[in-house]
């Protein structure tokens, strides 16, 4: 409320939070917004948890925004499109963000935008500009340290960041290299401790920032480390014969050294020279700088992927994310958004070539939506509808984890969901082509995609670009073949626009696709100019996006999925039992808790400035509010389920299906048997990798599971002492019966052996 509107100043707020790298949120750009995900245990509710930066080519003023992955410090800034002294600073911010990430991340929030009012109030932004620094592992809005007078110059901004970073002490961001001056001892043993080719030493006076800036500038480069050495470090100064400060020296792992041959002893010259050294490459940050950084594990295990294949894990992850996260963001769906959802789900039910239990899931969801005749669909009802159903005879399941294989980026913020969404829609256009006459419903898939992107896709920039392309030419598509080609060519347009941008994964450069090595026949030359051979492209697309080319690698089999879900339910039930509360009260409390959480979420959703959605999405939201419009498409980290659950909260079975352990065990055993049969008759992929169900393994695992389940059933309600007493009593009574039997047998024998009296 105290924020001045209309200021042309640069405004900043900043954030840095704990909690793992597995959620999305993007701030950034002019008027960018910071996502406020739902509260999760141990997580500050008003934060962005993962970010991806989207670049606009139209608007070069756009700069990076967004923040918050657990172990990184971040700065968030706000741009007010200034034409004054802020221009320089504004231009520097994306550069700094790109260079110093992941040690420091920078994001912007427009506090003059009414939609951000609540967030800015939470961050206590009372005027423009404000710059706040959040140390790594900060938990609350109040943890932000206001950087005094950030407006002086770009240089001051950099220095402020470094000074604050240095004061982090215990909260040192693990991805940040040491910034303190190196000692002679450290330099002596450096190559023994670090597997790099070069060590650059910047000799400088204690008040100089050059060494620290170069250290951060080189943070993303491999094979080289940078340290500052103070002019007071006599041993090193003498050893290297340093006479001017600053000056740079390069040490090689073989012990030789030389002075950096730079034209000027300044940061940019040092950085430029060091980056051009042979063997120095830009890569993920790996250097094990200090013992405290040794446990930096941010990226998931790289998965082997073949770009000529399509992976079911990507497709199912896209479905999970779109249905359970992206669509579920809105408090209520109505009007165009509800129609878009119905359209999208109907399309999936019709064309998605999923595993049997996924197809059942989509079909039942489609049926449910068709029966939903109310003008509004509240989020709670939707969340309930997208849960997996525990019906043993008819499993309707969609995996609840996100696993990127073909769409895995080289870093967590690359690729992922947007990649999988493209793949999904290419696949659907190809499936539609195979399933009906060319001229029938040519726009069926493209229109559904257009509506989905317009109403739900979290990246506003992307949605706008896509809508512009669609408005221009989509209605000219007259057949299903043309639809396949339209999507292909427009995807290539996007690839061309984004090539070389910040969003490009350096390991997966944006190419005109398919490249010649994937499809030589797709390319030709006409009058010395490259041209596409469209019939060949169409053939290629049909084959590439066909069910036969979908590989199940890294997917969880249906039986594993069931077992995992039941295990998790079991663990949850055990946890409740261990509290020694009567089961009924447990149930009541769980229900109460669930209700409270739902209400909490409802409240969150209804806060117009925090999670408001566009006009199409229900009554409580104001036009122009930004929930669905937030640029929030990001790579989600495939994390263990327990960590995801507290955020997405959608992947557990409903307890109500399984009131007792005994019922649950019986249900699991039943489901397992039936599912195995269903899957056995399910059409399998033609190519060799059909590893969905390894029956022998499943059976063995199943036996184990069943045994343990029955063991639990037998043990239900009895303590170990009870069971032992039963066994002892059983043994004693058996002995007793045996004794009686022996006694009577002996007696009979002795009677038979005695001579009888002659009868009269
Ligand atoms: C509708 C939409 C609009 C987007 N708009 C923007 C935007 O404006 N700005 C922005 O920064 N990001 C945008 N994105 C995200 C961006 O296009 C990429 O998805 C993201 O950068 C990840 O890129 P990627 O390298 O994984 O490959 P992607 O471009 O996502 O491609 C995914 C996969 O599809 C295949 N493929 C690539 N090109 C084609 C093609 N022409 N035809 C068929 N298959 C192909 C390849 O196998 C590739 O791995 C958009 C995404 C979508 C879904």
How would you describe this protein?
The protein has 760 residues and is of the alpha+beta class. Among the domains are: 173 residues, 3-Layer(aba) Sandwich (Glutaredoxin); 110 residues, Glutaredoxin. Helix content is 43%, strand content 8%. The chain has 24 helices and 16 strands. A four-stranded mixed β-sheet has the order 2-1-3-4. The radius of gyration is 32 Å and the shape is extended. It starts with 72 loop residues before the first strand and ends in a 7-residue tail after the last helix. The N terminus and C terminus are likely disordered. The site of flavin-adenine dinucleotide (FAD) has 27 residues, from helix 13, helix 15 and helix 16. It comes from Apteryx owenii. This is Sulfhydryl oxidase. Catalyzes the oxidation of sulfhydryl groups in peptide and protein thiols to disulfides with the reduction of oxygen to hydrogen peroxide.
Heteromolecules bound: flavin-adenine dinucleotide
CATH H-level superfamily title of the domain at 1-173: Glutaredoxin
Shape: extended
CATH topology of the domain at 1-173: Glutaredoxin
**Helix-residue proportion:** 40-55%
CATH class of the domain at 1-173: Alpha Beta
Distance between the termini: 125 Å
The unreliable regions are: 1-85, 285-299, 579-591, 601-717, 754-760
Count of individual beta strands: 16
User: What topology, given as strand order, has the largest sheet?
Assistant: 2-1-3-4
Supply Rg: 32 Å
Question: How many helix segments?
Answer: 24
Architecture of the domain at 1-173 in CATH? 3-Layer(aba) Sandwich
Layout of strands and helices, then pairs:
Elements: E1 73-76, H1 86-100, E2 104-107, H2 117-122, E3 132-134, E4 145-146, H3 154-166, H4 184-188, H5 190-193, E5 198-204, H6 210-217, E6 221-222, E7 224-230, H7 234-240, E8 247-252, E9 257-259, H8 267-275, E10 281-282, E11 310-311, H9 312-326, E12 332-334, H10 335-351, H11 356-371, E13 376-378, H12 379-385, H13 417-435, H14 444-455, H15 460-473, H16 480-498, E14 523-526, E15 529-532, H17 534-544, E16 550-551, H18 558-577, H19 583-606, H20 608-611, H21 641-648, H22 661-681, H23 695-715, H24 720-753
The structure holds flavin-adenine dinucleotide.
Region (Disordered): 568-645
Keywords: Disulfide bond, FAD, Flavoprotein, Membrane, Oxidoreductase, Signal, Transmembrane, Transmembrane helix
Catalytic activity: 2 R'C(R)SH + O2 = R'C(R)S-S(R)CR' + H2O2
């Amino acid at each position: 409320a105290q924020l001045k509107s209309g200021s042309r100043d640069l405004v900043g707020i900043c954030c840095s939070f704990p909690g793992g790298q597995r959620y999305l949120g993007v701030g950034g750009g002019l008027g960018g917004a910071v996502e406020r995900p739902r509260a999760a245990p141990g997580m500050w509710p008003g934060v962005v948890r993962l970010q991806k930066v989207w670049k606009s080519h139209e608007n070069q003023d756009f700069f990076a925004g967004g923040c918050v992955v657990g172990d990184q410090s971040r700065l968030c800034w706000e741009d007010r499109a200034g034409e004054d002294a802020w221009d320089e600073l504004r231009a520097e911010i994306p550069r700094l963000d790109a260079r110093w990430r992941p040690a420091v991340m920078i994001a912007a929030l427009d506090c003059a935008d009414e939609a951000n009012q609540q967030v800015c109030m939470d961050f206590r932004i009372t005027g423009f500009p404000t710059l706040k620094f959040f140390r790594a592992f900060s938990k609350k809005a109040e943890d932000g340290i206001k950087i005094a007078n950030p407006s002086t110059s770009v240089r001051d901004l950099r220095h402020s960041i470094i000074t604050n970073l240095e004061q982090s002490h215990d909260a040192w961001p693990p991805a940040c290299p040491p910034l303190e001056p190196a000692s002679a001892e450290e330099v002596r043993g450096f190559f023994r401790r670090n597997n790099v080719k070069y060590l650059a030493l910047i000799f400088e006076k204690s008040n100089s920032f050059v060494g620290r800036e170069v250290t951060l500038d080189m943070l993303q480069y491999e094979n080289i480390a940078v340290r500052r050495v103070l002019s007071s470090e006599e041993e090193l100064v003498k050893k290297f014969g340093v006479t001017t400060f600053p000056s740079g020296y390069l040490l090689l792992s073989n012990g030789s050294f030389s002075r950096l041959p730079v034209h000027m002893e300044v940061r940019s010259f040092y950085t430029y020279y060091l980056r051009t050294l042979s063997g120095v490459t830009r890569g993920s940050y790996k250097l094990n700088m200090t013992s405290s950084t040794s446990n930096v594990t941010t990226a998931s295990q790289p998965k082997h992927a073949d770009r000529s294949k399509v992976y079911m894990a990507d497709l199912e992850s896209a479905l999970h994310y779109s249905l359970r996260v992206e669509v579920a963001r809105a408090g209520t769906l109505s009007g165009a958004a509800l129609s878009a959802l119905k359209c999208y789900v109907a399309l999936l039910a019709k064309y998605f070539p999923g595993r049997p239990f996924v197809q059942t899931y989509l079909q039942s969801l489609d049926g449910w939506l068709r029966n939903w005749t109310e003008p509004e669909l509240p989020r709670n009802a939707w969340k309930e509808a997208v849960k997996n159903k525990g019906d043993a005879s008819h499993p309707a399941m969609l995996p609840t984890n996100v696993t990127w294989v073909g769409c895995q980026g080289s870093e967590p913020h690359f690729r992922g969901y947007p990649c999988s969404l493209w793949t999904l829609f290419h696949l659907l256009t190809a499936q539609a082509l195979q399933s009906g006459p060319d001229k029938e419903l040519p726009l069926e898939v493209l229109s559904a995609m257009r509506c989905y992107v317009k109403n739900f896709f979290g990246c506003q920039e992307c949605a706008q670009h896509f809508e512009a392309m669609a408005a221009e030419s989509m209605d000219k598509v007259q057949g299903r073949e043309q639809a396949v080609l339209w999507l292909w060519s427009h995807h290539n347009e996007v690839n061309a626009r984004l090539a070389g941008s910040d969003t490009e994964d350096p390991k997966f450069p944006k190419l005109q696709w398919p490249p010649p090595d994937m499809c030589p026949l797709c390319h030709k030359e006409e009058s010395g100019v490259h041209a596409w051979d469209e019939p060949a492209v169409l053939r290629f697309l049909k084959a590439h996006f066909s069910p036969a080319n979908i590989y199940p690698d890294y997917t969880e089999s249906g039986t594993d999925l069931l077992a995992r879900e039941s295990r998790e339910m079991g663990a949850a039930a055990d946890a409740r039992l261990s509290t020694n509360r009567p089961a009924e009260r447990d149930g009541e409390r769980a229900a109460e808790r669930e209700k409270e959480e739902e209400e909490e979420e409802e409240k969150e959703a209804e806060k117009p400035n925090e999670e408001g959605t566009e006009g199409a999405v229900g009554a409580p939201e104001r036009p122009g509010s930004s929930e669905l419009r937030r640029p929030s498409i990001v790579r989600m980290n495939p994390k263990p389920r327990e960590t995801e659950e507290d955020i997405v909260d959608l992947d557990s079975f409903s307890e109500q299906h399984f009131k007792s352990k005994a019922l649950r065990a019986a249900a699991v055993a039943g489901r397992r048997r039936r599912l195995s049969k269903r899957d056995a008759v399910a059409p399998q992929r033609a190519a060799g990798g059909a590893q969905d169900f390894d029956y022998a393994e499943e059976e063995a695992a199943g036996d184990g599971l069943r045994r343990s389940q029955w063991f639990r059933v037998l043990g239900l309600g009895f303590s170990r002492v009870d069971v032992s007493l039963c066994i002892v009593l059983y043994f004693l009574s058996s002995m007793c019966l045996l004794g009686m039997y022996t006694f009577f047998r002996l007696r009979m024998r002795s009677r038979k052996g005695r001579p009888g009296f002659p009868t009269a």
